[in-house]
Amino acid sequence: MEPILFQTRYLTINTFWIFFLSAIIISSIMLVKISIRNGLKLQFLSDNSGILILWSIVGARIFSLIENYKIYFHKITDETFLSIFYIWDKGLNFWGGIICFFLCLYFLCKKQDQDFWKWADSLLPAIILGIGISSIGAFFEGINYGRETSMPWGVNFESPKVKYTVPIHPTQIYSFIYCITLSIALALSSHIKKLKELSFSGAITLAGISLYGILKFLEEFFRGDDVWTIFGIRLPQIFSLILAISAGTFLYIRYNRQAKRPKDNK
């Protein structure tokens, strides 16, 4: 575990931010390739990249502030108020960023006459790839860690951020493995002839969200970090399950509608 990659008197480079930046670069390359393959105009994305990034950060920060209100608002002072804007403290909530990103994308597509589902189909494999790469940064940072385990691949963290002193599940590595696998599968799905014939705009997005939700739900069984719970169930786990079921149901409905269209046209 190496949370600090490089440090001098005037400069500190965190390992987490290196992997986060790498995730953005590699995901962007994948996004460009998929977008071109899907016949989308990259100018739309480049013209609106600033506002998309801004709203993603705002959403991620707001959700993080709500989730960690006891830390940020333990007392009301000028210092605690200013800390709201210190996004470099890694206080960014993944779900908040994703939700605001897609909401912003939806309204931009609607305003500029773009196909939201085609853009979502191009974006989702790249986003999941980025999540996977960022998980390695989380491993070095000692966050998003697992609970204790007797499995031979359990790892020890020597960090005040980790409450366990015994081997724990490397849930960050689990996340890396299933995110990379899912991202590649979604990116290659359009090359499979049978799947291509059955697919429709938004199919990759809905299938990807549903599968990711299921995998995230399973990962939460092995997580050991502290989060809000409802009746003893972790809130991210509940949200992941709701997301998986909702996306899966919507995919089923859209697939049935698509399957009925040729019959109606006869």
- End-to-end CA span: 63 Å
N-to-C SSE string, H for helix and E for strand: EEHHHHHHHHHEEH
Strand content: under 5%
What is the overall shape?
globular
* Strand order in space, largest sheet: 1-2
Alpha-carbon Rg, integer? 20 Å
Total helix count?
A: 10
Mean pLDDT: 84
Number of strands: 4
Keywords, separated by commas or semicolons:
266 residues, mainly alpha, two-stranded antiparallel ribbon, 4 strands, 66% helix, 4% strand
Q: Please, could you describe this protein's structure?
A:
The chain has 266 residues and is mainly alpha-helical. The chain contains 10 helices and 4 strands; from the N terminus they run ββαααααααααββα. It has helices at 15-37, 42-67, 69-72, 78-83, 94-111, 116-141, 171-189, 193-198, 203-219, 235-265, and strands spanning 4-7, 12-14, 229-230, 233-234. Strands 1-2 form a two-stranded antiparallel sheet. The chain has a two-stranded antiparallel ribbon with strand order 3-4. α1 runs antiparallel to α6 (116-141), α2 packs antiparallel against α5 and α6 (116-141) runs parallel beside α9 (203-219). The model has no long low-confidence stretch (mean pLDDT 84).
